[in-house]
Amino acid sequence: MSANNQPAELSAKIKSIRIAMLTSVDEHGFLVSHPMTNQDIDQDGYLWFFSSDEADLWQHIAANRNVNVSFAAPDDNVYVSVSGHAEQVRDAGRMRALWNPLVEAWFPRGLDDPHLGLIRVHAHTAEYWDAHGSRMVQMFRMAKAAVTGHPPKHDPGQHGTLHLN
Q1: Is 0.85 surpassed by the pTM of this model?
Q2: What is the pLDDT, as a whole number, of residue 148?
Q3: Residue 61: C-alpha distances to residues 56, 58, 66 (Å)
Q4: For the chain, what are the domain ranges?
Q5: Contacts with 5 (C-beta within 8 Å, 6 or more apart), sequence order
Q6: Distance separating alpha carbons of residues 144 and 30, to the nearest angstrom
Q7: According to the model, what pLDDT value does residue 5 have?
Q8: Nearest Cα to 78, choosing from 28, 24, 142, 11?
Q9: How far apart, in whole angstroms, are the C-alpha atoms of residue 150 and residue 139?
Q10: What share of the chain is helix, strand, coil (3-state, %, to 5)?
Q11: Each residue's pLDDT tens digit in the chain (165 positions)?
Q12: What was the pLDDT predicted at 1?
């Protein structure tokens, strides 16, 4: 797949996953993960999240832009890990475009909240695992292994890396 189609491929894999874990580096150099609501991935492959400038995550990104965002849909056997750089963005137009009732639950003062901001993640690479197998198929393989005494055949499904920059 060509590099310019890779943001679309990433979007297709993560668009239905509502919650992501955004991992940043804290002031002591430790990795810290934050649950975030997946707002958008634009055509350029940027991931967008709402945040408060009072949040630890906001401060972490100010000091160290390296982040990882992980997405998991265990029921669908889809897992995606995105590496990149984050930046703090104050863009009223983009915030209006991304605003929805779920965001309002976290930011009850709405778009007028002076601490409201966006975190934009510039994805460099995304590694994904997409097993496509249903739970029933997996359970059958496990049951067969238990009866035969042989480990189940591993079907890794689709695994790959998308290079977004």
Answers
A1: no
A2: 75
A3: 9, 5, 8
A4: 3-163
A5: none
A6: 43
A7: 78
A8: 11
A9: 14
A10: 30, 40, 30
A11: 445 678 889 999 999 999 999 999 999 999 999 999 999 998 888 999 999 999 999 999 999 999 999 999 998 889 999 999 999 999 999 999 999 988 999 999 999 999 999 999 999 999 999 876 555 555 666 666 677 777 755 555 677 787 876
A12: 45
Extract the runs of DSSP E, i.e. beta strands, from 10-156: 19-25, 31-37, 40-41, 46-52, 66-73, 78-89, 116-130
Residue holding tokens 């239905």?
Answer: 16
- Output the six-digit token pair for 35: 């649950």
DSSP line for 105-126: HH-TTGGG-TTEEEEEEEEEEE
What CATH number belongs to 3-163?
2.30.110.10
Dig out the tokens for 38 from the structure. Answer: 């997946």
d(CA 75, CA 29): 33
* Site of tokens 């003062």: 109
Residue type, 152: P
Burial code (b: 16+ CB inside 10 Å, e: under 16) for 138-157 equals: eeebeeeeeeeeeeeeeeee
